[in-house]
Each structure stands twice: as structure tokens, then as C-alpha cells.
Design a protein that fits this description.
This protein is mostly helical. It has seven helices and two strands. Strands 1-2 form a two-stranded antiparallel ribbon. A hairpin with a 2-residue loop joins strand 1 and strand 2. About 25% of the residues are buried.
Length: about 180
């Protein structure tokens, strides 16, 4: 899949609803929220990359201070900072601005706007369909920003292989801690 000239690869498949009951609505809401947070953290990492490039000789304390500062920013504020710093493709800016609106709507108004829909199967199906659309939007934003972010991190020697190895190491540590 491509966003403008950026090849973002394949997205994770979005599940299909089975019963369209209340639990499923909440499950799809959770998946949409998870993907919205992934997109937001991708922006944090992207902004962090540019901050670190500008301040190349950081110690661990300075690194964490910058990261924690960025991590406390809202999606909208992060997007504003990134847009000031980087000349992003028009298609990506448009998608990220739509992502911001959809993320805020999901967090603040989704259940209010769909309150009556929870009362019947057709309404819940409509809610799930909307949540599936949001999941797609958030996955596209996450993957696109991660692809751009990787280009910045590669200038500092952090490659996709390095990141995959780091994730594998952390996953192994997590599982060994569970088994202990």
C-alpha cells in the first residue's frame, strides 16, 4: 500500500464481526483505540528522531527528558511540531489531519454519537463498521509515519533490523519474566 510516494507495506487484517453484540462493539473500540495510540506514538518517535538529530551529543538524562516531553504532547500538538520541522508529502499531511480529527472523535464523542445504536444489532453493526474504518485510518497513519521515522533513525545507525532485534530481545525478556 502507498500513501503518496511512501510504500507503507501491508496492514494487519481487520477482524470481521461475528455476533454484533455489545462486547464486540467494545472489542472493536479497543482495537481502534490501540491503533490510534500506535499512530500517536509513531509521531512521538518521529519527532524524537528530529530532536535527537538536532542535539546529537545527548546523554541518557537529556534523551529521556526530550522523550518524556514529547510523549506528554497531544496528537495535534505533535503533528503541529512535525509539520513545522519537516516538509511532509501533501497526502500524508491530509491523512494525518484526518487521523487527528478521527482520533479525537473516537476518544471524546464516539459513544455519545452512537448511543442509540447500542440498542439493536443493526446499530451495533454500523458502529463496528465505523470502528473498522477508523482502525484502517489509524494503521495507515502509523505505518506511514514509521516509514518516514525509520529514515531519520537510520542516519544515526538505527536500522529496521536493529529495531526488530531489539523487539525480539524485549519480547524474550518479557516471556522469561512470566515463566520465572
Amino acid at each position: 500500500m502507498k500513501v503518496g510516494d511512501i510504500n507503507i507495506g501491508e496492514l494487519k487484517p481487520i477482524p470481521e464481526p461475528e455476533l454484533c453484540d455489545e462486547k464486540e462493539v467494545f472489542a472493536f473500540f479497543g482495537l481502534a483505540s490501540f491503533n490510534a495510540q500506535c499512530a500517536e506514538k509513531a509521531l512521538v518517535n518521529f519527532a524524537m528522531g528530529y530532536k535527537v538529530v538536532d542535539n546529537s551529543a545527548l546523554n541518557q538524562e537529556e534523551w529521556l527528558e526530550i522523550y518524556n516531553g514529547l510523549n506528554s504532547h497531544t496528537f495535534g500538538r505533535l503533528l503541529g511540531q512535525v509539520k513545522k520541522k519537516v516538509d511532509l508529502p501533501y497526502e500524508l499531511v491530509t491523512h494525518l489531519e484526518a487521523t487527528l480529527k478521527k482520533r479525537n472523535w473516537l476518544a471524546h464523542d464516539f459513544f455519545y454519537d452512537y448511543a442509540m445504536h447500542m440498542s439493536d444489532t443493526d446499530g451495533r453493526k454500523e458502529m463496528i463498521t465505523e470502528l473498522q474504518n477508523l482502525i484502517h485510518i489509524f494503521q495507515v497513519a502509523d505505518h506511514t509515519v514509521e516509514k518516514l521515522s525509520l529514515k531519520v533513525w537510520e542516519t544515526m545507525g538505527i536500522t529496521e533490523d536493529w529495531l526488530q532485534n531489539e523487539v525480539a530481545t524485549q519480547l524474550k525478556e518479557y516471556h522469561s519474566g512470566k515463566d520465572a
